[in-house]
Amino acid sequence: MYPDRVVSGMRPTGSMHLGHYHGALKNWIRLQTELPCLFFVADWHALTTHYDDPGVIERSTWDMLVDWLAAGIDPSQSTLFIQSRVPEHAELHLLLSMATPLGWLERVPTYKDQIDNLSNKDLATYGFLGYPLLQAADVLIYRASQVPVGEDQLPHIEMMREIARRFNHLYGKEKGFEEKAQKAVKKLGSKRARLYNELRTEYQQDGKDEALEQAKAMLDDAQSLSLGDRERLFGYLEGSRKLILVEPQARLTEASRLPGLDGRKMSKSYGNAIALREDKDSVSKKIKTMPTDPARVRRSDAGDPARCPVWQFHQVYSDKPTQEWVVKGCTSAGIGCIECKQPVIDAIIKEQEPMHERAQPYLDDPSLVRAIVADGNDVARKLALETMRDVREAMGLAYT
Ligand code: SF4
Fold first, then answer.
1. What is the topology classification, in CATH, of domain 6-171+246-256+367-394?
2. Burial class for 151, CB neighbours closer than 10 Å (0-12, 13-18, 19+)
3. Cα 353 to ligand 1 centroid, rounded to whole Å
């Protein structure tokens, strides 16, 4: 019913590193060539854990945007914006909060994990409990059809879908819906109307998902329908409600995991990260001093790549022949660790060269980034306002 659209955001809580690049950004860069994408800086989300240190947010916001552009996010293909510049996210969050059961938020698995992982922070706050709901508002406000996520985020998407369903169920009903829907069916023309009714029956009586998909595709092609009739006919297919919010689909990220220099998760706070735009000498020094298989004390000792974090870098950065050279050379003590690390150093520097080049104009003239984001904020706000118009109307708040 609404155009396919991808929405995703990142929290600005520090500079970006190669773990972010391989874990998420590369996927965004691929997606932007396939579908319209909206990528946002989740600055309000950063406040859920950094409410006592907000200074880092402003700096990280602009650094992160330069990193995105450096990595290859193309503002002519994607919309880049800042969450807090589209205040309708907060309005939708508030309105959704009225009907969201507390238990839905408390059972999101990452909620408990985060509280345990960040035990040095007091996260027993209203904002932190509500962040999956703010995430839901971030996505639902754009009627996004797809959200790129890792496996651990799947429960969040499931909750977004439940929230959209609940909203449509509570607020999608209208007086005389059945009558209005049947009138809308007639507007399809007799041939299409017959097909619509047949497919609706097949879906509702026999549970045939293909019938639902076929009917939806037919409605997508029926250009002459008004938005209201379209919402009614989509809703009538599945029940007796208008579909105001769209249930997004999770799009599982095919990402290679790049660990930190010590083999743990790459994180600036662990001191094991390589920044996205780290300079060459520093990259070289960091890799050269990376720990290796602890059992390989002398050059003449054979090693085991499975116990070495450098091998995990080879798995991301090296081709098959190089990987075979590593395994053979390491297990037979045929190569030294310094020798083994060199192809990784070369590959990272090669990967980062175009990033440094793309970042330079934005570093020379920061107003370029400001302008890209100002345009993106306008595009996002326009879409958000369209949804909020329907949401306010459905909730009985459109009075003057
Ligand atoms: S040769 Fe390579 S894989 Fe083997 S221990 Fe040294 S750095 Fe690690």
1. Rossmann fold (3.40.50)
2. exposed
3. 26
